[in-house]
Input
Amino acid sequence: MNEPTDDGLAKTEPRPAEDIARTFGDITELLDKHALIEHVVHQQAMPKHELVEALVHRQSLADLKNRLQAKLEDLHPADVARILEALPPPRRLLVWDLVKAERDGEILLEVSDSVRETLIASMDTRELVAAAEQLDADELADLAPDLPRDVIQDVLESLDAQDRARLQSALSYPEESVGAAMDFEIVSVRPDISIETALRYLRRLGELPDHTDQLFVVDRDDYLLGGLPLNRMLVRDPDTNVGDIMEKEITRFKPTDEAADAASAFERYDFISAPVVDGFNRLVGRLTVDSMVDVIREESDSQMLGLAGLRDEEDLFSSVWKSAQNRWLWLAINLVTALIASRVIGVFEGSIEKLAALAALMPIVAGIGGNSGNQTTTLIVRGLALGHINLANAKKLLVKELAVSLLNGLFWGSILGVIAYLLYHSIPLGLVMTSAMTLNLLVAALMGTLLPLTMHRLGRDPAVGSSVLLTATTDSMGFFIFLGLATLFLI
Output
């Protein structure tokens, strides 16, 4: 059930995935009916056709608006964003126009970057300023990179001095830094007050910022001294001073730290909030678990896209031209590597002509090598993302992966060798098959480990293109090893 908030708006709660799917189905049905009515009226031959069509359009649109708003107004902004992302652009923009204006800013924060671009492009300056003014300074900082400069200027002029300074501060940091992700809603107390005094202060605030699990203890100059967990505060004697029970050694971050590193710390230590301090240890903001979850999700999405050779996040319903461009780079690289693999095969055309079985068996060696290498690459990329891999253990990890591949190569290569013998009644062919499989799996393990490690050492995302480059290597080397051994021992 929705509860009214202090500003009169309904507070929406997250819904189960089944409810969202059901709502999406209802919205799709309403849009289908609206489109059907528009089509039928357009096809009818009647007097004053244009006037009738305009009246029916207006009435149908008004009815659609009422029904859609009834469906959307109870949804959390993240759920509305999910529905918008699942709609093709024409329908997405139609639904977007019908969303209540006071929720535009919250929904823009929740949709993916690619979808946000299309929604912002459909809004005029007045609508964008109104949407931005609904947001806090830290939320504005997330949205600002996608807004036109004139909108940012209008929003800055509408803010009070404190929020303007906060927004300008957040915008001064790189997009992937802690400073860009930090929240300015801080509750701090002095160490020389009693718990009872601190509790009275909290009661006067009325409510605490979201994800508040501790108060930050500062001196008169805002230098961070420690943290006071709320659970500890509630069970201690009210006359006890804050400084006597605060935690002095707490994890703190600087605005210039990498947000991904901070997110890893949140995941590792189960933080709910953590302070952000400047170079002089003055408290300037805080990080919260919700923003760190967003960072983790974005990192995961980036790795998933990178492994497939996609450069950017892609709207499922973006134009054919834009989607094609997003995939060109690594397709071009794949084309070059495929040509190299084809030339490797071309070198051994004579061998293939003499023993046709080679043409049937060589894709197996290359395919299994690519699969094995992708498994290794995935483990290495994950290990790098979690900070588990460093110079001290990289060599041991490489040796371990080579050992695993040697074992798998001997086991599965032997099975394929037996199958090759049963099919072609040739023991030498079976032995070549086993040897080629083992060697190619060793190559796959070597490249699956070294490729992401090298890219990471060079400061590049280890996930981007690793899978494409690895598959190209295992294909070429698989063909070369198998056909080379066959040429030496069978032809």
The chain has 22 helices and seven strands. Confidence is low (pLDDT under 50) at residues 1-10. The two ends are 78 Å apart (CA to CA).
